[in-house]
Design goal:
With 308 residues, the chain is of the alpha+beta class. The chain is built from eight helices and four strands; from the N terminus they run αααβαββααβαα. A four-stranded antiparallel sheet has the order 1-4-3-2.
């Protein structure tokens, strides 16, 4: 009751200002929540698009190596192992070249993470191992993606399963006794063997830095919220000005004239304020003053007659 009493005792302008500020706060909260969700979705979509483009590019490199380079150099593999004939190696090298020569891709990463690789640089870390195990447990899962925290910041990753789909792969990865001697001389016999046809052995991953895109989304969010806030503030100022000019000032003028009339000054005039509700109120006070004047004149006439 005390709060209501205080609110009722406020001036009209203060009440409207407080109400408009509440509308501003609620509006900004709602807009901010919706905008955050939209920008987050848009950001994830942009990051995903970047990762998918790079993933498809690396798959094109793999296909080219497998279909064009490998057949041309197949006869030399027994004499000299050429890692350039391995699709995974070619894709990794092309991506590293892209990173080194384009600063904007320096924080991007490509890896064919394998639990039991021939080349130890492809060995899956703990997080990548969980991805491979996820693909093994769910063989119908074509792709997975999400965010991962690393010392340099959050990154967005897309991973696809690596399956031994060609029997030619088993020439190097089944058992050491059937592997090319040049491969054994380069990598030894401890790793990269025991693979089976149609077995999932790794995860092809693309990692894209998320912070840059998140920063851009944050800047967009702040810009939009600043514009919206500015519009709200301008509206509040305009409403306050209109309220003061067309409501508060006319009401103060009417109240002042009514107070003077109440003290017996019948020479003051309410005037024509406007043709809106405030004008109607002024007109009603003018009629009331006229009626009061007529009544007082009538009373004076009666008193005069009685004296006579």
């Amino acid at each position: 009751c005390l709060k209501m009493f205080k609110f009722n005792s406020w001036k009209l302008r203060k009440k409207f200002t407080i109400l408009l500020l509440l509308v501003l706060l609620i509006g900004l909260t709602c807009i901010g929540s919706i905008l955050t969700a939209v920008l987050k979705q848009k950001t994830e979509h942009e990051i995903s698009e970047q990762a998918l483009i790079l993933m498809e590019t690396m798959n094109s490199v793999r296909d080219y190596t497998s279909n064009q380079v490998q057949p041309e150099l197949a006869d030399r593999i027994d004499v000299e192992f050429l890692p350039e004939t391995i699709p995974a190696y070619s894709a990794r090298e092309v991506f590293e070249h892209l990173r080194q020569n384009n600063p904007e891709y320096r924080d991007f990463f490509y890896k064919e993470a394998t639990i039991n690789p021939t080349n130890l640089r492809d060995r899956a870390d703990q997080f990548e191992t969980t991805l491979v195990e996820k693909f093994i447990a769910n063989t119908d899962l074509p792709e997975t993606s999400g965010f991962r925290s690393i010392p340099g910041g959050d990154i967005f990753y897309i991973a696809r399963p690596i399956k031994v789909s060609k029997i030619s792969c088993l020439q190097c990865h089944s058992t050491p006794d059937v592997a090319p001697q040049s491969l054994i001389e380069r990598y030894g016999t401890a790793n990269g063997y025991g693979w089976k046809l149609n077995e999932i052995v790794g995860a092809q991953t693309i990692s894209v830095p998320a912070q840059k895109v998140f920063n851009e989304a944050k800047e967009t969010f702040l810009l939009i919220m600043t514009v919206v806030s500015s519009i709200f503030i301008v509206v509040i100022l305009l409403v306050n000005d209109l309220l003061n000019r067309h409501v508060i000032r006319p009401l103060k003028k009417i109240a002042k004239v009514a107070e003077e009339v109440s003290t017996g000054d019948m020479n003051v005039e309410f005037g024509q304020v406007s043709e809106d509700e405030i004008g109607n109120l002024a007109a009603a006070f003018k009629r009331m003053k006229l009626s009061l004047t007529l009544a007082m004149n009538r009373i004076s006439q009666i008193k005069s007659v009685n004296r006579d």
